[in-house]
Specification:
Elements lengths: L1 H6 L8 H9 L8 H11 L17 E4 L6 E4 L9 H8 L36 E4 L3 E5 L9 E8 L5 E4 L2 E5 L4 E11 L4 E11 L5 E6 L5 E2 L2 E9 L4 E8 L2 E6 L4 E6 L6 E11 L4 E10 L10 H27 L16 H7 L3
Parallel strand pairs: 3-9, 11-17
Antiparallel strand pairs: 1-2, 4-7, 5-6, 5-8, 8-9, 10-12, 12-15, 13-14, 13-16, 16-17
Helix pairs in contact: 3-4
Length: 355
């Protein structure tokens, strides 16, 4: 190439050696994708167009097939569908733009490959709330691409990582919690995009609870110790004890147990109810019937006792009064006989009934 130019310098144009040099450069050495992106945005503004077919006048842009070196006329029939911005990019791939219209040879077809560099738009759908062990349906139908989405990949992270494929997917979440699901979409050119959604899995499994002691239909007295076993797939939040429907105690730490003073309640049949709750508020209850029997201390004197005491007091008073009367009527034996000249004694006067 250089030898030909040095041997016949006047027989060649100024750009001929440069064109030959361009054809000698391997395809893909330079990347001017930025030209296409910039012009695509500029021509996409209001009042402008990026389409040869919508121009008021004819426009032809000459490019070069980087593989064969053949000229390509953008805007001509068969290539008018190529965006103007992409034609400019192709024309600027190598130097040597032609100002006049060029006609392609009919016996030498040229293939122009337009690369898809537009990334798809991924849409994993709205966030969801589902029950544990229920089937969740996910859809990526809202994803888009300028050519078409070729692949949908769903990634799940509950437990061991798992991947599903397809525009829609069904999945069963076995454990309550909040999880992130990632959808990655790809087009045929390998351009990719990703979107995520949040799945909240509700705990709908009831806890389990049992009363270890006392035994059913047992007769108890004094302080009653109630032993309870409780469990849950996630965890027990608290255990409550009720007596005949009234809440009497709460325990939040395993092993669960309660102490109940039976003497504070009436003797007879009572119902113990134990209820276990998990963090989601799911309850489970179990009942047991027992009999309270406590000896009662004396409660004081009754009507009969009080009546006996009254009669006893009255009888004692009557006896005392009789003794007093008998002692008062007995005449003294050591008194001298009354003299004939002395005046009569008051006691004698009263005893004889004289005034």
């Amino acid at each position: 190439m250089l030898a030909a130019y040095l041997t016949h310098p006047l027989s060649q144009g100024a750009l001929a050696p440069l064109a030959r040099l361009g054809r000698a450069i391997p395809t893909g050495v330079f990347d001017n994708e930025g030209v296409h992106r910039f012009l695509s945005r500029a021509f996409g503004e209001r009042g402008r167009t990026n389409d040869f077919r919508k121009l008021h006048r004819e426009l032809y842009l000459i490019g070069t097939d980087l593989d064969s070196g053949a000229a390509v006329e953008f805007g001509a029939p068969g290539l008018e569908h190529v965006p103007i911005s992409l034609a400019v990019q192709a024309s600027a791939a190598l130097p040597g733009l032609c100002a006049q219209r060029m006609t392609l040879s009919a016996d030498r077809p040229v293939t122009v490959t337009v690369r898809d560099v537009t990334s798809p738009g991924a849409s994993a759908g709205p966030d969801q709330t589902v029950d544990e062990d229920a089937t969740a349906t996910l859809s990526g139908a809202g994803s888009t691409d300028n050519v078409g989405v070729a692949n949908y990949t769903w990634a799940f992270t509950d437990g061991s990582p798992r991947t599903l494929y397809g525009s829609s997917a069904t999945y069963v979440f076995a454990t309550p919690g909040v999880y992130t699901v990632t959808l990655t979409v790809r087009d045929a050119a390998g351009n990719a995009a990703a979107d995520t959604l949040t799945v909240t899995v509700r705990d709908v499994t009831l806890p389990a609870a049992s009363i270890d002691s006392p035994a059913s239909e047992a007769t108890v007295s004094g302080t009653l110790v109630i032993g309870v076993t409780a469990s849950d797939n996630v965890g027990v939040a608290r255990v409550e004890l009720r007596l005949d429907g009234a809440l009497v105690a709460t325990d939040t730490t395993a092993p669960y147990s309660f102490s109940l003073s039976t003497g504070n309640y009436s003797d007879g049949t009572h119902t113990l109810r134990v209820t276990a709750y998990d963090a989601a508020g799911n309850p489970f209850s179990t009942d047991r019937t027992v009999t309270f029997s406590n000896p009662r201390p004396p409660q004081g004197l009754g009507f009969v006792e009080y009546g006996g005491i009254v009669l006893l007091v009255l009888g004692a008073a009557a006896v005392a009064w009789l003794i007093f009367r008998r002692g008062k009527r007995r005449k003294p034996t050591n008194m001298p006989p009354p003299s004939e000249t002395s005046p009569p004694d008051e006691l004698d006067v009263e005893s004889h009934g004289q005034p």
